[in-house]
Every structure is written in structure tokens, then in C-alpha cells.
Amino acid sequence: MAGLEVLFASAAPAITCAQDALVCFLHWEVVTHGYYALGTGDQPSPSDKKSELLPAEWSNNKDLYALRYESKDGSRKLLLKVVTVEKSVIINVLEYGSQQVSDLTLNLDDYIDSEHLRDFDRTYKNSEELRSRIVSGIITPIHEQWDKANNVNCPQREFPPATAREVDPLRIHPPHPHTSRQPPWCDPLGPFSVGGDDLDPFGCRRGGMIVDPLRSGFPRVLIDPSSGLPNRLPPGAVPPGARFDPFGPTGTSPSGPNPDHLPPPGFDDMYL
């Protein structure tokens, strides 16, 4: 803890109680983390000057200490207040720029021997623990919040906007040349085409459990829509390619499978 003894010797005339000794230790810790003392009180004063020593009249009020600090690069300013409450002190630090606050409460008897305030070697107890608590409770939180606030305010790296081709989720890739000439269904005579639609309903395979006479792969004679009617149907009554049951007997024309090739169960039972 180089420098603390020199600081203690320079401030010894003003150290008359335990809280004075603690504030002296606290000041030394803040200075070793890259700060200068400016002065006392909440507001700037014409007499302010950067120094590693405690400012004049720093211990006039034993119940409330108020010290102002500035980092060596001038980027941060701190307001440090120490309030005495019986045998404890409450340390409060405000960083002006980010308005971040950190607090720490210490028991004086744990770290200061008030019976030997004139002897530096016996004034402080558990010095390493005291230093660790000040760093973790005061210094580190202020620096972390400062770094976080600076990262938020820093301009973010800009990237060029994506083109419509890059972001369009509905864009359909063009088919490959060799696939555009393929038929939309597989060879119905293939040994593995049966049941293809049932196994892959969203794919391009064909061949369900029911035979499709329109896509059987064999030549067939077109069915006359007007078969069995006294007159012919008007043009357009049956859309091209529509599947339907003939209105009457189809005659001798080889029209394909019997319209009743899938009768319901018991269709020939007269008692149903």
C-alpha cells in the first residue's frame, strides 16, 4: 500500500476520530485508481485544484464528508459522501456524467483502531479486506456502469440494407433446366409409384391407393358427356378434364372403368 503512509502523515493533524482515518484510507484508494481530488462540498469552487492530497477543511464536519474527484483524463467526475451513523459509515458515490450511484456500508470497529490514531502502523485493521470492499463496492460498479453507458452511446456499426432478393421469404427459386422438362408425376408403371401421394402428399410424386383413370398411362377414349340424354349438353357444361359419372349408359364405347367400380359395402343387399 505504497503512498498511504505518506498521505496519512500529511493528514495526521486533522485525523481526530475513527471516521477521519477511514475517509483518509478511502481517499487514498480513489486516488490510486486514477483520480485527483478537486475540493470539498457538492458544488465546484474557484479554489478547486487537482491534487493527490486531501483538500483543505476536508474533516470539518465529522458527520458528513463531501469530496469531489476528477479522473486524470478528465472523462469522469465523482462526488463522494461519507455519512456517520453511530459505529458505522455509509459511503455514497455519484458519477456526474452517467448519474450512476454506488453505496457501501462499513463498520468502523472492524477496520479502525480508534485508540491508536497517532500510530499509522496500529490505526488500520484488516487493511486488505477494507481495500477489497472499497474496490468491489465503490470503484468497480462505477467503472462498469460508465463503460456500459459509453457503449450504449457509441454509434453502432452500420451495414448496407439488404436487397429485396435477400430478404424476400416467398421467393421461389427457378427450376433447374433438366427438371423443367420432367412431367409433374412419376411413371405410373413404376413398381414403386403405388401409394406415392399417400406417403408424400406435398411432393411431386404420384400414384395413390385409388387408380386415376385420367393418369393411368394408357390411351383411352374420351367419354361423351351427353351419353344417355335425349339432347346434347350445351358447350361448356362440363369443364375440360372434369371427372364425372355419365348421365346414362355409355354404350359400346370403351370409356374406361365402370362408374360403379367402387360400390359401397352391401350395395346389393335389398334389405338395407
UniProtKB/TrEMBL annotation:
It is found in: Cytoplasm; Endoplasmic reticulum. Keywords: Acetylation, Cytoplasm, Endoplasmic reticulum, Methylation, Phosphoprotein, Proteasome. The keyword Endoplasmic reticulum applies. Residues 12-148 form the PI31 proteasome regulator N-terminal domain. Residues 226-272 are annotated as: Disordered. Gene3D superfamilies: 3.40.1000.30. GO terms for molecular function: endopeptidase inhibitor activity; proteasome binding; protein heterodimerization activity; protein homodimerization activity. InterPro entries: PI31-like (IPR045128), PI31_Prot_C (IPR013886), PI31_Prot_N (IPR021625). Residues 256-266 have a biased composition (Pro residues). It holds the Pfam family PI31_Prot_N. Residues 183-249 form the PI31 proteasome regulator C-terminal domain. GO terms for biological process: negative regulation of proteasomal protein catabolic process; proteasome-mediated ubiquitin-dependent protein catabolic process. GO terms for cellular component: cytosol; endoplasmic reticulum; perinuclear region of cytoplasm; proteasome complex. Belongs to the proteasome inhibitor PI31 family. Plays an important role in control of proteasome function. Inhibits the hydrolysis of protein and peptide substrates by the 20S proteasome. Also inhibits the activation of the proteasome by the proteasome regulatory proteins PA700 and PA28. This is Proteasome inhibitor PI31 subunit.
